Amino acid sequence: MADLDLRGLRFDLARVTIELESPLSIGTGAPGDFTDVVCVTDANGLPTIPGSTIAGVLRHLMAAGNDPDHDDVCKQVFGYQERARGAGSALEVSWAHVHDRNDCPLPARAPVRKVGTVDEVLDFIAAGVTRDHVRLNGFGTVDDRGKHDVSAVPVGARFTFEIIRHDGCPVTPAQLVDLLNGPTARFGSGTRRGNGRFKVVRALHSTFDLRKAADRDALARIPRDIGGHIPDGVLQPMKFGDGIAEGFCTGTIELVPEDFWLVGGGAPEALSDVGGTGSELRPLANDVAESVDMAPLTEKRIDWATTPATVSGPRFVLPASAIKGALRHRTAFHAWRLREEWALAIARRANEVPEEVDVLFGVIRSKTEGRPGRLVIDDAWPARGGPMPIDHVSIDRFSGGPLDGHLFREAPLSDSGAIEIAIQLDCRRAIGQARLDDEVGKRALAAFRAALDDLCQGRLALGGGASRGHGYFKGTVRWAGSNPLEEDA
Fold first, then answer.
1. What's the pLDDT at 139?
2. How much is the CA Rg of the chain, to the nearest whole Å?
3. How far apart are CA 133 and CA 139, in angstroms?
4. Are 393 and 402 in contact (CB under 8 A)?
5. Distance (Å, rounded) from C-alpha 449 to C-alpha 439?
6. Helix 51-62 crosses helix 173-180 at what angle (to 10 degrees)?
7. For residues 98 and 114, what is the distance between their CA atoms, to the nearest angstrom?
8. 81 strand-pairing partners
9. Which stretch of DSSP H or E encloses residue 449?
10. Nearest residue to 98 via CA among 57, 55, 21, 45
């Protein structure tokens, strides 16, 4: 360890810029006026990422596969306290500042925008996107009074934050950025349903020794405003790789719809604006879109292909929560089947979840007891296709005939082509008390393998309207490297 008297004299400064590849939700802990979960904001009223969140994710990634309580490297990097013994952290992490449309991070107290100026990117980020969710019961179906809305930062938003590495830290700035750019790094809540994924866009770095006049002058040239211009040569571009993801297996589910499919919750008026110039997504005419009662989910994104950045038109989304919910329900079915426990016995134990489901999908038993799931599923964004309006009438449950005046129109998606869904499976031997190499763990993998086979063979539907033939697919699952679901794995 370095001499404590030298702390702060010699250090590394890294400035990291990330871009969201899925919605980000870091809650304040208090509900809002219109949503149940509200994102944390800075003094400008714009979404931000607290430094404690970034440091916590870094520690989690560094300790992956090990016991963090006995990991000497984590103790040296992030500090520790054990009764009278302890040490301070060798890292300092700032809060993350959101970027405007000119790709410039805003300081904590940004100047008031002039009247008449418009920054559609900041306005869009401030408004955010809303995802609807429902709580699932032990049978994997909708629980009564379990609906909740989550506000999130949209895909494409960029943030910049700083990391200071003090002398004596056993990891380099490049290693820290590698961890952040790895496939398992995510911020916020809902990561197992695809939220919080990001990529490192750029990273700048320099080492300063304040005992040297040249380094003191160089540090003084960095403006206090994080959005200020940094003179050339003060911070150098950093090379970084794909990070470390030991123990994680990455795969892709490629699905081709057999017919229509629909994940509802979208705004009908957005169907006339979907796609854009050169897009293969087909919008609806304004008058047709206005008459739709059940619309597919759409979301806008931030596009950095041009300068300044723009907010792209709405795109159709197959949310990870819709995929995960269906797979969880079918995995529970196969888990009961493999245990040879049938419907009558299960019905007597309402809301009981088979242990195999907890192993893969996680569990929350109380406010203080639980563990994360091993399975991470990402949102899918179809690159083609469009809605097809279909008229229906409501049926009288008593007579089986049509109800007068109850005509409604849905707009399921058609001709969407192949849809690719990224999944990750944590194959580390143990997470808490859950294991994959014991009898329960092996049965959990077998049940999940059967559920994936049902999805790819057209026996498991995604979204709504399954009784009308919607949501059935044919497809395959490809794993990068070894297949963790092989029977002899």
1. 65
2. 25
3. 17
4. yes
5. 15
6. 90
7. 19
8. 86
9. helix 439-456
10. 45
| Residue 381 · residue 274 · CB < 8 Å | no
Question: The dihedral of CA 164, 169, 173, 178: what is its sign?
Answer: negative
Q: What is the total residue count of the chain?
A: 489
Single-letter amino acid, residue 115: V
What are the DSSP calls for 349-386, one per residue?
STTPPPHHHHHHH-EE-SSS-EE--SEEE--B--SEEE
- In the three-class reduction of DSSP (H, G, I as helix; E, B as strand; rest coil), residue 192 is classed as helix
Q: What is d(CA 133, CA 193) in angstroms, rounded to the nearest whole number?
A: 11
3-class SS of residue 105: strand
What does the alpha-carbon distance between residue 285 and residue 283 come to, in Å, rounded to a whole number? Answer: 7
Say which residues have a Cβ less than 8 Å from residue 120's Cβ, sequence separation at least 6: 101, 310, 311
**How is residue 423 written in tokens?**
């999944």
Q: Nearest 5°: phi and psi at 309?
A: -65, 155
Side-chain half-sphere of 66: how many Cα atoms within 13 Å? 14
8-state DSSP, 66? S
What is the helix (H) or strand (E) element at residue 59, kind and residue range?
helix 51-62
Residue for token digits 């893969």?
A: 360
Contacts of residue 124, Cβ cutoff 8 Å, sequence gap at least 6: 154, 300, 302, 311
308 cis-preceded (ω within 30 degrees of 0): yes
- C-alpha distances out from residue 200 to 15, 17, 121, 242, 260, Å: 11, 6, 19, 10, 36
CA pair distance 51, 294, nearest whole angstrom: 41
Q: Report residue 213: phi and psi, to 5°.
A: -60, -40
- DSSP code at position 34: S
pLDDT tens string 198-213: 999 999 999 999 999 9
| 253/318 Cα distance (integer angstroms) | 13
Phi, then psi, of 377 in degrees rounded to 5:
-125, 135
Instruction: Count Cα atoms within 13 angstroms, Cβ side, for 272.
Output: 10
Q: Which amino acid is at 215?
A: D
Taking only the tens place, the pLDDT of each residue in 253-307 is: 999 999 999 998 888 999 999 987 668 899 999 999 999 999 999 999 999 998 8
Q: In whole angstroms, what is the distance from residue 405 CA to residue 382 CA?
A: 35
Helices (H) and strands (E) counted in the chain, each on its own, are 10, 25
Q: Cβ–Cβ contacts within 10 Å for residue 338, how many? A: 16
Partners of 132 in beta bridges = 149
User: Which pTM value belongs to this model?
Assistant: 0.89
- Read off the pLDDT of residues 327-358 as tens digits, 9 standing for 90 and up: 999 999 999 999 988 877 666 666 678 889 99
For residues 6 and 167, the answer to whether their CB atoms sit within 8 Å is: yes
